[in-house]
Amino acid sequence: MIYPARYTLPPLILGYDWDFSFTYEVSGAGLDFTDYSMSLKVMDSYDSAVLDTWTSAAGDITLGDDGTVAMAVASTDQSNLSVGKKKYIVELTDPDSEVSLIMTGDWPIIDINGV
Predict the structure, then answer these.
(1) pLDDT digit of tens for each residue in the chain (115 aa)?
(2) For residue 76, what are the contacts with CB-CB under 8 A and spacing of at least 6?
(3) Pick from 77, 80, 75: which is nearest to 112 by CA?
(4) pTM for the full model?
(5) How far apart (Å, rounded) are the C-alpha atoms in residues 48 and 85?
(6) Which of 9, 70, 79, 86 has the fewest CB atoms within 10 Å, i.e. the most exposed one?
(7) Nearest Cα residue to 110 out of 74, 81, 77
C-alpha cells in the first residue's frame, strides 16, 4: 500500500500561471513514469465536490522517466477556483489501471493582494 505524502502546495494567485514540480521516489530511486498517468484534483473540503481536475492526459502534468513531475495550471484554466484554503489530491494510475493516492494536503488560492 502506498501512503500519501501530506504537503501544502505553494499558493496559486488567481489570474496568474502556477507551476510546481517534484520527484517521486520509490526505495530512493525516481519512478519511471512510462505508461503512467496522473491527476491533480482540487476541492473546498475532502467531502465536497471536485472543483477542477488537471491531468497528464490533458498536458497539465508532465511525467518523466526519472520520477520527475511538473504540474502547471494556466491562468486561463482557473475559472472554477475561488479565494480560500482548498484541499487537493494527486492520484497516480499505473500501467495496469490501478489508482493510488500519492499526495494530499492544503492548497491556498489567493488573489493578487495575498488574501
Answers:
(1) 678 999 999 999 999 999 999 999 988 999 999 999 999 999 999 999 999 999 999 999 999 999 999 999 999 999 999 999 999 999 999 999 999 999 999 999 999 887 6
(2) none
(3) 75
(4) 0.93
(5) 13
(6) 79
(7) 81
Separation CA 53–CA 39 (nearest Å): 7
Q: Which three cell numbers stand for residue 14?
A: 488567481
Q: Give CA angle at 38 (36, 44), nearest 5°.
A: 165
For 33: left if phi > 0, alpha if psi spans -120 to 50, otherwise beta; the answer is: alpha
Residue 115: DSSP 8-state: -
Q: CB of 8 within 8 A of CB of 105?
A: yes
75 is written with which cell numbers? 491562468
pLDDT at 1: 62
Nearest to 44 by CA among 113, 106, 103: 106
